[in-house]
């Protein structure tokens, strides 16, 4: 019997929706290289939230409304984004320093910031793997 002309290769990838678009996620045991980084929108939002938090704690702004007016954004948006400054330390470490790539959106991340610290990592990382985004 002659050898087949084609071969099949199986790559264990997951496809999840991110911002309405499909995103291919690597296998759970895959370690990304140095050049692969977290979604820049998530990193930018976390950085902005921490900057706003520092400015408010320094007394530069008395309310979120004053901050929103100063940065020329809607008060609701600033209030929601400011929650990212209160993410659990282990979640921040995995997102910012570990650069773990997730299919989570900034909106979902801000919603999970309202949860107790012990539950945030489970929601942010485990739910993204299960497709609950």
Automatic annotation (TrEMBL):
Origin: domain of life: Bacteria
UniProt protein name: Phage-related protein
Gene3D superfamilies given in the database record: 1.10.10.2830
């Amino acid at each position: 019997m002659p050898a087949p002309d084609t071969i099949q290769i199986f790559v264990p990838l997951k496809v999840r929706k991110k911002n309405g678009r499909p995103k291919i996620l690597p296998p759970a045991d895959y370690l990304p290289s140095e050049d692969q980084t977290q979604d820049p929108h998530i990193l930018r939002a976390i950085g902005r939230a921490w900057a706003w938090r520092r400015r408010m704690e320094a007394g530069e702004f008395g309310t979120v409304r004053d901050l929103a007016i100063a940065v020329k954004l809607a008060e609701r948006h600033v209030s929601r984004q400011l929650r990212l400054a209160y993410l659990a330390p282990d979640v921040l470490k995995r997102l910012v320093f570990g650069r773990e790539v997730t299919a989570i959106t900034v909106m979902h991340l801000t919603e999970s910031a309202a949860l107790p610290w012990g539950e945030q990592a489970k929601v942010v990382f485990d739910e993204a793997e299960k497709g609950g985004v």
